[in-house]
Hints:
Blueprint: E1 9-15, H1 29-48, E2 52-62, E3 71-81, E4 85-95, E5 102-114
Amino acid sequence: MEQVTPKGNPTLRTLAMPADANVSGDIFGGWVLSQMDLASGIIAGERAQGRVATVAVDAMKFIRPVRIGDVLEIYGWVARVGRTSMGIGLEAWVIRNRIGKCEKVTEAVFTYVALDEEGNKRMVPPEA
């Protein structure tokens, strides 16, 4: 059965523009990936209560294309927390042509490490 609603909390919303597309009108996967990195960085920074850095993108799965004029919405959640790192689960959905059908287009888990002011690994604080 196909998923009909996003998992997680809404974190980022943006419009896919012509400058972000290939000659066929499909948005570059790298652009979608960068939007997901921005969204997951927000979630990771909040959970770590400070500076974080992306260390891996796990299981990135492109399900459907994003097209010019689609509203891209990124939903995310803290999937796992380790001593100095955390996994942020993400789903990307689009609203076709700003008013149309809502479809899931991408999912992934981004891994982050918490950093101190000097850029060294630090403990992720306990959940508040």
